[in-house]
Specification:
Oligomer: single chain
CATH architecture of the largest domain: 3-Layer(aba) Sandwich
CATH class of the largest domain: Alpha Beta
Helix content: 25-40%
Bound molecules: 2-acetamido-2-deoxy-beta-D-glucopyranose
EC number: 3.4.14.10
GO molecular function: metal ion binding; serine-type endopeptidase activity; tripeptidyl-peptidase activity
Low-confidence stretches: 1-16
Structural class: alpha/beta
Protein name: tripeptidyl-peptidase II
Catalytic activity: Release of an N-terminal tripeptide from a polypeptide
Function: Secreted tripeptidyl-peptidase which degrades proteins at acidic pHs and is involved in virulence.
Shape: globular
């Protein structure tokens, strides 16, 4: 009886899944899984895969052209950001693409669901056996050795030849990511004595940068960041959080009590949740990263509203949750002026098609007036996380020209590069026009050093930097000092959010995609960092020098100079 039942089921599956005979053409291929992944064997035929299909967008190059037009200070359309509908006109697929792909799916008994606001992403669920036939491939089980996490992926797949031009990519297929893009923040318990100083509203402690740690008062002193309260409630920062890292409101309250007694210690952030993300408030669940990111936005960008977006793992995102985050935010009519993400990984893990798709989502956010900031990573030239390497490892998504990549510095007399600050050149994106002269003058100073270890025609990163060593935080009733580009990114984000507050108050548009501004009129408003390097791969890495460099970018912010550079 049982045997017959099984037989009937599998026959039915075979009938339903028999692919129509369309000619197939190889679509994406990678030579091998990235190092650190091992092949275990074929995936079980009956395992159901949640696959995502990206449709070819209507006019992606039109989006980029418009993005430059609204983000370049010398352009007559500078600051004329697009609405949700206007952006979606560029990225929505053509109706014939939607029809062609759905007809093919229907012929195979598959129905799709639309999962992005512009309709450019579909989701399907298919057993491995059917997916193998549809895409002429063999889905297999791979293990990410350092974590033991298993995933089903393939080294190549095909799509029907007649769908070229309609179907952009199938995901997750040739993208192999570690389970998380968490950065290796170094945390040291703070054992010094803290003495409460009750300042008046003119005060708040520090401003004299204690040798032992960096706090908001120290950042305010080094970068001339104002302490006066922001006034525009429409201008907010979104802090993204992943990997079950929860931001604890009581830790923030403690932090503000000690570090910003002049602002009410009840000042807090709001929480939004995505993909099953939560913001559990049990002490054990607070994370260094989430507490750091909320304390250095709420505590530095005085009175700028902060949204903590907690992204969970109930998804088939396949790129650390970054795809879902971007599409979730793009689905909103109201957008933050700044998104800060202190997570980063390596470019080689993500297939070039998926990397381009995600980069295009950041371009959409830029076109709508959002500054998208990512940490450059903490592994020097060896990638987001320090690892053994021969060639330098570009981090991700810092290579995407439409994000602003933030590296790290330390000390302040003088300020120098932090040695963990990731920087280098993308293998996926070429040097964009906004930085071509900055990059070529760096390369001519560099000469033959590191020749052959990096891609001299790639997009250089980071773009900017900020302090990143020994940041004082409150966590779970204790104090710690933390180091990493994770400290630098919320700091730079807070500076931009405060500039945006003043711009909005003056009836002007927010800054949006920052890079064309930073490399032109913004250039002289940054403190050029000219010493330190970022070793890795058995080399000294790159050195910070006059002008842009792949360690500290263009340099660190000077709020007063930035105010005049943005016309305030
Ligand atoms: C600080 O001083 C003010 C004014 O004297 C007082 O109202 C406030 O309670 C004090 N704060 C703390 C935490 O002691
Ligand atoms: C989405 O829009 C709503 C309503 O304006 C707002 O409350 C929310 O914070 C927005 N979410 C994000 C992530 O920007
Ligand atoms: C690099 O390789 C050395 C020698 O094989 C090993 O001891 C070390 O742990 C490795 N470092 C990393 C970061 O993997
Ligand atoms: C170097 O970068 C260029 C420009 O993005 C790219 O076309 C090329 O494939 C890259 N080279 C390698 C070896 O990845
Ligand atoms: C947050 O962390 C504190 C310890 O700092 C803990 O006592 C508290 O239960 C946590 N949750 C909330 C809601 O504050």
């Amino acid at each position: 009886m049982i045997r017959t039942g099984l037989l009937l089921v599998s026959l039915a599956t075979l009938v339903a899944s028999k692919p129509t005979s369309r000619a197939l053409q190889l679509h994406e291929v990678r030579a091998s899984a990235p190092s650190g992944f091992s092949l275990d064997g074929p995936a079980s035929p009956s395992t159901v895969l949640d696959l995502r299909l990206a449709l070819v967008q209507n006019d992606p190059s039109g989006l980029i052209e418009t993005l430059y037009d609204v983000s370049t200070p010398s352009s007559p359309h500078y600051g004329e950001f697009l609405s949700k509908t206007e952006v979606e006109k560029f990225v929505a697929p053509k109706p014939e693409s939607v029809t062609a792909v759905n007809e093919w799916l229907n012929e195979n008994g598959i129905t799709s669901r639309t999962i992005s606001p512009a309709g450019d992403w579909l989701s399907i669920s298919v057993p491995v056996e059917q997916a193998n036939a549809l895409f002429d491939t063999q889905f297999s089980v791979f293990t990410h050795l350092p974590s033991g996490a298993q995933s089903i992926r393939t080294l190549s797949y095909s799509i029907p030849s007649d769908l070229k031009g309609h179907l952009d990519l199938v995901h997750p297929t040739t993208t192999f990511t570690p389970p998380s893009a968490k950065l290796p923040i170094q945390a040291v318990p703070y054992t010094g004595v803290k003495e409460f100083k009750n300042f008046t509203s003119a005060g708040d402690p520090a401003g004299d940068c204690p040798d032992t740690y960096v706090d908001p008062g120290c950042l305010e002193a080094i970068y001339n960041i104002p302490r006066t309260a922001a006034t525009q409630s429409s201008n907010y920062i979104t802090v993204t959080g992943y990997d079950d890292e929860y931001a604890n409101q009581s830790d923030l309250e403690t932090f503000l009590y000690w570090e910003r007694p002049c602002i009410p210690s009840s000042t807090t952030f709001t929480v939004e949740e995505l993909d099953g993300g939560i913001n559990d408030q049990t002490p054990a669940d607070a994370g260094y990263e989430a507490d750091l990111d909320t304390q250095y936005t709420v505590g530095v960008a005085t009175n700028v509203p902060v949204v903590f977006l907690s992204v969970g793992e109930d998804d088939s995102d396949g790129v650390f949750g970054f795809l879902d985050t971007a599409n979730y935010i793009l689905g909103n009519d109201t957008l933050p002026s700044v998104i800060t993400t202190s997570y980063s990984s390596n470019e080689e893990y993500v297939s070039i098609n998926v990397a381009n798709n995600l980069c295009n989502a950041y371009a959409q956010l830029g076109a709508r007036g959002v500054s998208v900031l990512f940490s450059s990573g903490d592994g020097g030239v060896s990638g987001a996380v320090s690892e053994n390497c021969t060639d330098f490892v570009p981090s991700f998504p810092s290579g995407c020209p439409y994000v602003t990549s933030v590296g790290a510095t330390q000390s302040y007399t003088p300020e120098t590069a932090a040695s963990f600050s990731s920087g280098g050149f993308s293998n996926y994106w070429g040097t964009p026009s906004f930085q071509s002269s900055a990059v070529s003058s760096y390369l001519s100073q560099l000469g033959s050093t590191n020749s052959g270890l990096y891609n001299a025609s790639g997009r250089g990163f980071p773009d900017v930097s900020a302090q990143g060593v020994d940041f004082f935080i409150s966590l779970n009733g204790n104090f710690y000092t933390l180091s990493g580009t994770s400290c630098s990114t919320p700091t730079f984000a807070s500076v931009i959010a405060l500039l945006n507050d003043q711009l909005v108050a003056a009836g002007k548009p927010t800054l949006g995609w920052l890079n064309p501004f930073l490399y032109s009129t913004g250039l002289s408003a940054l403190n050029d960092i000219t010493s330190g390097d970022n070793p890795g791969c058995n080399t000294n890495g790159f050195s910070a020098t006059t002008g842009w460099d792949p360690v500290t970018g263009l340099g660190t912010p000077d709020f007063t100079s930035l105010q005049s550079a943005v016309g305030l």
